[in-house]
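Need residues for this backbone.
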């Protein structure tokens, strides 16, 4: 069950939703056909509920938003970017367990 708290980013919305966000932003670069991405999806849904109002959880479909993927040097998926004050402060590639992602989010707050 996908969370309604997750924002799907496009070239048009990236600046306003991610870069200009007043709260930390987690951005998941994924594809519908990617197995590890499917493993991360329910974890992100859970994090979106847990950190609602504190952190913005976003997703970028690499097949639909190629420019964003190239601009952020996404070579393999899933790649998760951690942004604070409009700057990318951390990034991970691959499916991490929820506890590891929570630790990174807690470091942003």
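Answer:
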């Amino acid at each position: 069950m996908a969370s309604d708290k997750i924002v799907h980013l496009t070239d048009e919305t990236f600046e306003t939703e991610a870069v200009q966000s007043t709260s930390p932003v987690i951005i998941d670069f994924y594809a519908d056909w990617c197995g590890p991405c499917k493993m991360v999806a329910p974890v992100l849904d859970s994090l979106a509920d847990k950190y609602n109002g504190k952190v913005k959880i976003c997703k970028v479909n690499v097949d639909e938003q190629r420019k964003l993927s190239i601009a952020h040097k996404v070579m393999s998926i899933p790649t998760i970017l951690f942004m604070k004050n409009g700057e990318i402060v951390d990034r991970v590639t691959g499916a991490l367990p929820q506890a590891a992602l929570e630790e990174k989010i807690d470091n942003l707050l």
